[in-house]
Here is the input.
Amino acid sequence: MSNKPLLNTEIARLTSSLHEIIHEQAGQEVFEAYQDILEASKKVRRYKKTEDITHKRKLIQALSPDNAYGVVHAFSLFFQLVNVCEERARRRTVEQRDGLRQSLSALFSNLKAAGVRPHLVQQCIDEMQIEPVLTAHPTESKRRTIQAHLMRLLEHLDEADEVLEALWQTRETRNRKMSPINEVHNCLFYFERTIFRCVADYMRHFERELHAVYPEVVVRRPVLRFGSWVGGDRDGNPFVTPETSLKAARLQHELAIKLIGEQLDCLISEISHASQPAPSNVHEEDDESPFHVDEGLRRRLAALHERIVPGFTDKAFLLNELNHIRTQLVKQKAYRAARGRISDLICQVEVCGFHLAHIDFRDHSRKLEESKDEI
Here is the structure.
């Protein structure tokens, strides 16, 4: 099935499920009002007739306050579901199309076609820094809870009914104004749900596309890092204080610890490989560890996990330990494990460290010029 029909099929599937939820949760009166306004809106869009616009306005003006809330909620969910389907369609397009104009593959191929020599590409890779910067939008009213439900729907359409029921019964907007710390939590939502996980995928893809065109060029260090204005942009938000920025940094650090800890948990489960040779400093008779006496790498990961707690910031130590474990896996021919999660975690730590993103402190130039002592 091509992308456009599949998009239409998914929209029809989700909106049909939504209509059942509206009818079940809000009742016949709200459902009929929603349907009438929906059909009127389609006519306005298709024919743009004055009488159709007038009819639609009358339908809206006739709503009682209680029914108006239900109808607005229904349309809000309707458009969010359409956005989910369109995002899935965009992702399919990217995955299916070879040679996208702005892809890494096209970039390196164009450099090669232009006669750029490998040593120049190597110099560029050695010096370049790709730095996406996250910013805050105080007008953003969508709650993290809503974002999490929509993200679940984006990945699992088979859970649509359950998610739609939850979305219908969840308040869409906050009951108070967004604070700078709310903005920080929104920013961290994306690190937790996508960015941290995708870092290793991106760097792996970057190296694969580079080596396909320039096999002699080596990526010697991570070319990716992240910045953030959230919690540090005093020019854009007068409520951002030094205390706000410190709390933002602490929240970022705590999330980094949590994400690294989750990966270490997975590695402890996965790296059950027996050490070769077995560790000589462990005696089975007085060993209280849950692991087999020969599972030296697993024990080392568990000991490492115990050290990675809030306040720990020794990035070099963590990388050294992880690299040593990966080297040992290679030595005992556990090549797939060495290329797997542990390599991903090394990349994630190299890029995100124990802070996820550095915070940019921004303020109006006049303040900076007039308050040098305070700075």
User: Anything to note?
Assistant: The chain is about 65% helix and 0% strand. The chain has a mean pLDDT of 92.
